């Protein structure tokens, strides 16, 4: 994987419903960058595993992951993970079943290993598609996937604000339970990495948050 110094990577991490996707999409649009929602990649892998009837402690998981072929389709500047060339519809990715299981699979080192290189390779996908940078959102982007990203931010908001966002989206999602699993797992836990900028999205508008991150990008422009 090659990143040139002028290829811009913006890492956005945060818990469930912390405002990552809305912020990341808008930022990518304003700065003309590729957008990658790595949560959707974990959701796709989880949906495929569940479809096969495989549990987290099932011995078939390893061989499934070894043979699963991953690729990316870009639509509307966002990457979608394809498994064997096929993507899952949003209704499946955001279903109650995937919401309830994704954190357990995401806690498994073999699942994270499968997606580690793939996520870093999104730089190549972005470059091949003519983008000068990417905005990647997730839980461990600024800590593990791109610790050297030019800009790393950590979004957070009050639990009540986050629950009402999910309710407004019509989703049944136990966000606090998911955050607990995501923050306490041994491998690549959800955390605000050292040196990242922490932003409360409950007390600012999306536009203000995007503006703040754009200013960080400008202040760290390579000469
Ligand atoms: O962002 P999201 O809620 O769609 O993410 C779904 C799950 O995927 C989340 O509970 C934890 C996992 N995840 C992760 O472990 N690491 C990432 N970089 C992104 C998501």
- The CATH superfamily is P-loop containing nucleotide triphosphate hydrolases
Strand content: 15-25%
CATH architecture: 3-Layer(aba) Sandwich
Bound molecules: 2'-deoxycytidine-5'-monophosphate
Sequence of strands across the biggest β-sheet: 2-5-1-6-7
The mean pLDDT is: 94
Described by strand count, sense and barrel closure, the largest sheet is: 5 strands, parallel
Which helices and strands occur, and which strands form pairs?
Elements: E1 8-14, H1 20-31, E2 34-37, H2 38-51, H3 60-67, E3 70-75, E4 78-83, H4 90-93, H5 96-106, H6 109-120, H7 122-128, E5 133-138, H8 141-145, E6 151-156, H9 159-168, H10 175-184, E7 197-200, H11 206-219
Parallel strand pairs: 1-5, 1-6, 2-5, 6-7
Antiparallel strand pairs: 3-4
2'-deoxycytidine-5'-monophosphate (DC) is lined by residues 16, 38-39, 42-43, 102-103, 106, 138-141, 178, 182.
Explain this structure to me?
The mean pLDDT is 94. The protein has 223 residues and is an alpha/beta fold. 48% of the residues lie in helices and 17% in strands. It has a single domain, classed as P-loop containing nucleotide triphosphate hydrolases (Rossmann fold). It is globular and about 50 Å long. The relative contact order is 0.23. A hairpin with a 2-residue loop joins β3 and β4 (78-83). Residues 16, 38-39, 42-43, 102-103, 106, 138-141, 178, 182 line the site of 2'-deoxycytidine-5'-monophosphate. 2'-deoxycytidine-5'-monophosphate binds next to α2, α5 and α10.
């Amino acid at each position: 994987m090659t990143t040139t110094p002028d290829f811009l990577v913006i890492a956005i991490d945060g818990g469930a419903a912390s405002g990552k996707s809305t912020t990341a999409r808008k930022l990518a649009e304003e700065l003309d960058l590729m957008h990658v929602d790595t949560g959707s990649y974990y959701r796709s892998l989880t949906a495929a595993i569940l479809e096969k009837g495989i549990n987290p402690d099932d011995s078939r998981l390893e061989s499934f992951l070894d043979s699963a072929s991953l690729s990316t389709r870009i639509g509307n500047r966002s990457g979608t993970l394809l498994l064997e060339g096929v993507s899952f519809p949003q209704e499946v990715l955001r279903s109650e079943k995937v919401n309830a299981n994704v954190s357990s699979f995401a806690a498994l080192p073999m699942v994270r290993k499968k997606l580690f290189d793939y996520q870093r390779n999104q730089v190549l996908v972005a470059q091949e598609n003519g983008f000068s940078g990417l905005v990647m959102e997730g839980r461990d982007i600024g800590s593990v996937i791109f610790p050297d990203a030019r800009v790393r931010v950590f979004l957070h908001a009050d639990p009540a604000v986050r629950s009402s966002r999910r309710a407004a989206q019509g989703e049944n999602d136990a966000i606090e339970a998911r955050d607990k699993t995501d923050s306490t797992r041994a491998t690549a836990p959800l955390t605000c990495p050292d040196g990242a900028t922490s932003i409360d999205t409950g007390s600012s508008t999306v536009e203000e948050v995007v503006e703040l991150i754009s200013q960080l990008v400008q202040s760290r422009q390579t000469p």
